[in-house]
Amino acid sequence: MHGTSYARLLVGTLLLLLPEIAAAQTQASVVKNADLSFGNLGTSPSAGTAILDPATGIVTVTGGVVNLGGTQTAASFTVSTPPAGNLFYTIILPLNATLTGPGSATMLVDTFTSNPPCCSGKGRNDIVTVGATLHVSANQAQGNYSGTATFIVTRP
Amino acid sequence: MKKTLSHVLTIAVLSLTLPARSVEPLPDSVRQQATAGFTAWARVVSGLGLSKTADLEMGAVTPGGAAGSITVSADDTRRASGGVSTAASSYGAARFAVSGAAAADVSRLRVSLPDRVVLSGGSGGEMLTAHAFTGRLVGSGAGVELIVGATVDVGVGQPAGRYTGTFTVTVNES
What value of ipTM does the predicted structure carry? Predict the structure, then answer.
């Protein structure tokens, strides 16, 4: 009868732990590989934009902005889906972000884009890159600018 | 007695595991979302500025019995060739101040000069052609200067007078 008691104890414990294990297997995880960098941009008396393509990492400029090279990279993330279950996930990109620079100078980043654009993953560990559009004002103050944003992946 | 003991054990197990279960139920929307923060970077530097500080002055020349040319080099030397000879006068290469933080690295600056420029003047309607433009970047940091010279062809019996033309130079950072 002692054997029966231990068996009941074991079964009770397993039943209570199962929901925890099931929940862990449906989660995705995201790891950042690289930040988003627009590199060096020259200003002029005209406003303009710098657009970073997430697929190529290439920056194109409009208006009075001059592309002066430097480190230009799309943000990069590894999205891992659980070993069991489907590959489907949804990417939620930031609406915008504010970069702050010297003094009280700021620049707005918006129109975030990702590659792949959305949803169903190709494998268990996908690389997703993110680009965006940076708005540079006329005679934007010189200096280094940075700001933070959040990359989100959800699973149904 | 043994049956009673077994009931006691079951109750004991439940009382140990209940606290763990009370932590587990989170809303699905929170539990199935993964996030990663990242930083967006940009460096703003001033664009290149270019302003003329001196015109290209070829000086006075005397036409001869044969066509020739007059050259003012980017090192400010003057030389006549063919039937043309120099006459006493002031002359000098064109000068441009290159400004902007990006001008700090002179080796990355690329200069574009005109191919040919027409000078007009004389006693009316006459023309000369300037060509073979040469450029030289000197200095560093905030003191970068572009010096430009050229060659002007002068024909036989070229009418006397002052001939002028306008040219454009471009500096890019590669």
Answer: 0.79
